[in-house]
Amino acid sequence: MYTRRAVAAGLLAVALGATAAAAATREQSAGTLAVRQVPAVVRTPVAQVVVPKAAPAPAGLPKISYWSAASGLPRDPATHSGSALVEGLRPYGKTAIYDAPGGEPRAFLPRSISGLPVTAPVVDKRPGWLAVLIPSINRRIGWVPTSAGAVHRLRDQLVVDRSRRELTWLRDGRQRGHWKVAVGSSRTPTPLGRTFVMGRTITQGSVYGGLDALVLGAVPDDREALSASLRNGHTAIHAWTDESAFGRSISNGCVRVPPDVQRLLLEHLPEGVPVNVVE
C-alpha cells in the first residue's frame, strides 16, 4: 500500500512501509520508474582461535637450577632487539617449559631458583601461550601456558654497551642513569643478548664495597676460559672500588660499577628487570 502526492516540480514520490527493502522514484516528464535495491547486510563468520594444548610433562624432566638449564629450547629470535620488555611471568609453582606452543616439554621452571623468586620477562605471545627468557642458559626462550603464572608489569630496563663500556638504566622508557663501567675481557666477554636480573646475592671481599651483587640469568659463554671456581657461576652486576677499571674490558664477564651506582640499583631494581647486552 502506498500514497501519491504531486509536487511543484512534477516529481512523484512513492513511500513504501518502514520495513520495505526497495525505494522507487518516478519522474513524470520522462515517464520512467527507477528502482534502487537496498543491499542486504552480509555478516562475515568469526574464525575460531585454536589454542594448542599443553602435552603432559613427564615427571623426569630436568629442572632449571642455578647451575644448569635444559637442552632443546629454541633460540631467542630477537636477541639483539632493543625493544623494551614490559611484562614478566611469575610462575605459580613448578611449571613445564615447552619448545613451542603445544610443543614438546623440555624442562621444569621452578617458582624460585636458589632462593631467588623467578620473574621471567615475556618476549612473545600466542593464543593461550607466553614465551619467556630462560635463566642459566644464554639467548634461549621457552613457552608456557598462560595459566602457568601471573603476569606483572616491568617498568625498568638495563642496557650494557660492551664497546662503549657503558650501563644505562631506563624506567618507563626514560633514562634514569648512565655510567661508565667495566665489562668482560676479550677472553671472558660479557655474554651478548637479552637476559634479566634473577635477584641479589652477597659478595665477599673489600673490592665489592660490602654491597650485594645483582645476579643475571646469563652464564659464561666459554666456561673453560675461567678458573675452575668461576666456571659454574652467573654473570652479575656488582660494585667495584677500584676506579681504574671503569671504561675498560677487563672483568671475568661481570659488569663492574661504582659503589654509589650499585647502591642506587639495589635500592630501585627488583627481580625480573630485563638486561640487554649489546655490542
UniProtKB/TrEMBL annotation:
<keyword id="KW-0808">Transferase</keyword>
<protein>
    <submittedName>
        <fullName>L,D-transpeptidase</fullName>
    </submittedName>
</protein>
<feature type="active site" description="Proton donor/acceptor">
    <location>
        <position position="238"/>
    </location>
</feature>
<dbReference type="InterPro" id="IPR005490">
    <property type="entry name" value="LD_TPept_cat_dom"/>
</dbReference>
<comment type="pathway">
    <text>Cell wall biogenesis; peptidoglycan biosynthesis.</text>
</comment>
<keyword id="KW-0573">Peptidoglycan synthesis</keyword>
<feature type="signal peptide">
    <location>
        <begin position="1"/>
        <end position="20"/>
    </location>
</feature>
<feature type="domain" description="L,D-TPase catalytic">
    <location>
        <begin position="156"/>
        <end position="278"/>
    </location>
</feature>
<keyword id="KW-0961">Cell wall biogenesis/degradation</keyword>
<keyword id="KW-0133">Cell shape</keyword>
<dbReference type="InterPro" id="IPR050979">
    <property type="entry name" value="LD-transpeptidase"/>
</dbReference>
<keyword id="KW-0732">Signal</keyword>
<dbReference type="Pfam" id="PF03734">
    <property type="entry name" value="YkuD"/>
</dbReference>
<feature type="active site" description="Nucleophile">
    <location>
        <position position="254"/>
    </location>
</feature>
<dbReference type="InterPro" id="IPR038063">
    <property type="entry name" value="Transpep_catalytic_dom"/>
</dbReference>
